[in-house]
Amino acid sequence: MVTSVELCGIKIDNPVIPASGTFGYGYEFAEFYDINKLGTFSFKGTTREPRFGNETPRIAECASGMLNAVGLQNPGVESVINNELPKLKNVFSKPVMANVSGFSIEDYVYTCARLDGQEQVGWIEVNISCPNVHGAGMSFGTDAESAAQVTRAVKEVTDKPVIIKLSPKVTNIARIASACEDAGADGISLINTLLGMKIDLKTRRPLLANKTGGLSGPAVKPVALRMVYQVFEAVSIPIVGMGGIASAEDVIEFMLAGATAVEVGAQNLIDPYACPRIIDDLPQIMQKYGIDDLSEIIGGAH
Amino acid sequence: MNETVLRVTSNKKIALNTYLMKLDGDCSAVTVPGQFVNISLSGFYLRRPISVCDYTSDSVTLIYKVVGGGTALMSELQPGAKLNVLTGLGNGYDDTLSGGRPLLVGGGAGVPPLYSLAKKLTAQGKKVMIILGFNTADEVFGEEEFRETGAEVFLTTVDGSAGTKGFVTDVMKELDYTYFYTCGPMPMLRAVDGIAVTDGQFSFEERMGCGFGACMGCSCKTKYGYKRICRDGPVLKREEIVW
To answer: In degrees to the nearest 10, what's the CA dihedral of B218, B221, B222, B228?
Structure first.
């Protein structure tokens, strides 16, 4: 039973990766279990400067999922390098995926260049769902040319594999993915959250202080799966699929759609042991569906 | 933190919209008054964080108010029901700073976590005073139980239908105390901070994603940097709070 896969030139023991924003900088989950069991994990979205994020409430519940408007709270890239990565080193011996956000091309370039020098970082996952401060608040990820610009700029400052994390808030996800591939991306990850809202009937106002928030959890899984399927037909670079994954069956479903690896997000928040459970379940679910080697099923649904 | 399955042994209404639930199982991770548990409920995606009223190594008592669908479902659970629970969450109150005459101030659904603290402090021989604040007599609970711990109990209701008419602060300003511990709605916490004459500790409530520090959903700014209510709190010291 082979669960290992190769993600952008780096072999990982299994395709299960806790998603950015649901796993901090990893060391806190190491109090619950040995995180070396994971394929890798994507650390908290990191920006050039420290950020507090949005006011609270930042979290709302909805049917089969949740909304979050954390607003990229993080200590900034220097603190990540000086404080978070050294703490992680004590509990995690594998390459980590560095998740990077920015509000201008210069932000992305600066942060990626700083992380390029970090031995612990295996991949850089670039979140292009953030608004571009030079683009009237429009997200980099909703325009093929902006997405390609970020990709090109980042690729110039790092030798590490660059995975571009796409926003689902677009008409044609395959077109954005292709633009990133053409600009030199080594991989694509998707989907980031969908935009949602909840209104408090007692106050008659949006519940989240930010008014809107990103929808995640099982509610988004069919959308995510469809987009992974479409992107697989458009690009030849590896895809990291995510959106509502909660079981080993979900992992296989995303891999059949075209994912080389998967990220598990919201499920970590309601079940801190979600990822080790999924990893433990994989062999028996593979056996159930007659799978000997996970790599062989990537894109198998096409 | 520990993930465990607890069994409901009793669940009864004790006041308006207010229920007392006892659960059995491995509760060894609950070690400090003021911690909370996070309960998974069928049909609801996120867990429900509920403060611990009292605990032993193999049981917890929760007093919760029905405020929405999740707590309404909890109120209907029968003895024998099993719940997946994350236990021993949050920092809890630091009882070492209490001095000889600690004052506890609880408002409404903020009263329960002060119970195990009152027990702990009275057992240490401290002269504990507690002010219980409610809106109206229908909501009152815990008066007798707190008295049984040996604490001196002051009851207030906003409408005067039980105890002293007015707010907890109306009583608090007349008392002589060495330190204070409080939990309750935000306006009450602000009012307590406004009139307190000593250091003290405040327990905060916030909407949470995970309850164990992963999602940054419940962050707040303090004088010593950003803190997560679920993990670095819910109890913060007066000196660090940015109101």
So the answer is: 20
